[in-house]
Every structure is written in C-alpha cells, then in structure tokens.
UniProtKB/TrEMBL annotation:
InterPro entries: Carb_Metab_HTH_regulators (IPR050313), DeoR-like_C (IPR014036), DeoR_HTH (IPR001034), NagB/RpiA_transferase-like (IPR037171), Tscrpt_reg_HTH_DeoR_CS (IPR018356), WH-like_DNA-bd_sf (IPR036388), WH_DNA-bd_sf (IPR036390). Keywords: DNA-binding, Transcription, Transcription regulation. Pfam families: DeoRC, HTH_DeoR. The keyword Membrane does not apply. This is DeoR/GlpR transcriptional regulator. It comes from the Bacteria. The lineage of its organism: Bacteria, Bacillati, Bacillota, Bacilli, Bacillales. It comes from Metabacillus bambusae. Residues 6-61 form the HTH deoR-type domain.
Amino acid sequence: MNTFYMTERQKVIIRELEIKNKISVVDLALKLNVTPETIRKDLSTLEARKKLRRIHGGAIQYFGLIKEPHFNKKVGISHNQKKLIGEAAATYIMDGETVVLDVGSTTLHIASSIKNVQNVTIVTNSLAAAEILNNRLENRLFDGKVIVLGGTTNPLQRSISGSLTNLLLENFYFDKAFISCGGINKDGICDFNIDEAAASSIMIKKSSQVYVVADSAKMNQRALFHIGSFSSIDYVITDSEMPNDWSKDAMVSGLHWISVGDSQ
C-alpha cells in the first residue's frame, strides 16, 4: 500500500546524485528542461522517502545520523565547497603559530592549502592530512614541522583517536584550532564518532582561537556526539550565510561568521 513509484524525472535525479554526490536545482532544471520549482518539489518528495537530503540550492545523498560515511566517500561530497572553505581557512594561519587540525574531509583541504608561512607547527590526528602536510613540507611550500598524534587508528576514516590521543592533546597549547564536524545547529557542533568528538573538544579547550569549518550540508544537522557550544567557538567558515533564526540567538551573538561563496 505504501509502495513509492518514482517518475522518470526522479530516477534521473537519483542517477545524477549517485554520480556526483551533490546535485544543484539549477543544473537539474537545465538538464531536464523544467522549472527550478518542479525540481524542488521532486527533491522534497525524494527527501520524504529518504532517497536524498535537501541542502540549500540542491541535495546530497541521504545519510542517517547514526552512520558516518566512509572517509573516501566524504571527500567527494561537496568537494568544491570544502576546497573553498579550506583555502579560506588556511589564510588565517600565520608565521610562528602552533595550530591543530582535527580529522575530516574539510580540514584536509586546509592541509592542502597551507603555503608561504614560516616556522609553523601543525599538530593533527588525521593520517590523510599528515600525508599531505609532509609532502608540502618536502616541496617547501611552507616552513615548519608536523606533529602526528599517537593513538588508535581508524582505517575507514583515516584518523587517530582514543585515550592516548586525548592524553597527548592535554599537553599542548595551540594558537588556533581548525575543527570539522558532522553537524552544526544552534546547540553548537557535533560528530559521529565519540573518540574523535572527544579529541576535537580537547583541541577547542587548549586553543586561543577556534575555527569551525563546515559546508552547508552540515547546517541544522545533528550527529550523535556533542563537540562544543558556540560559546567556545570564535569563527565559522562555511559556504552559506548564517540561518536567519540563528542571528537572534544570544548564544551566537559573539560568533564571527565567514561565508566563502554561494552553495547555489
């Protein structure tokens, strides 16, 4: 009785999503020769059936909040937006600073964008970021050193976390922390993995300035584990404007919101 029959247009939308990981209303309207409003209605219908998740200007693949996508899958989601965010975030890293990057596909783009800075110490629990940073050091794109935190590896997320990681983090003081997340809402930021969330929380606590990097797909989403509230965050770097209802909230009044482009 509850069988859901997709139209041919909706089937095309799902195929596009499987190929690209993120789809835009404008692009779909042009491809299918229909109005953007028609595409929006299709996306709403498909979202109700958990075939995709709506974001500003389009949709991404549906992921339940309990399960985190594989790291290699995450890298492909909102790739261009994450690249812009990473490039913008890297410009805040100054000569002589000690900074920490947590795990996540967006902080990976920060690692890929660090250049022309001197005597910088970068600490990370991301195996993927560490590899990129090491290559950039070898090629003299920046000057400094990279410290990879010890702990238990998570091969699927290319991360290091756990009690040893947290113990090591307690011994650092950072000028700046760059934190990714699985979701961002008015309560703050959250993530899927309790160990990685705990490490990010300590990074925040041990840093003079905290930058959250999150693409628009994370807005108004909740993951399982709380990382930190807005009172502990100084900057959010993203590809969308702050939601209108957030700006009236006292909890976000002191937050610097940096939008790096239009997510369409």
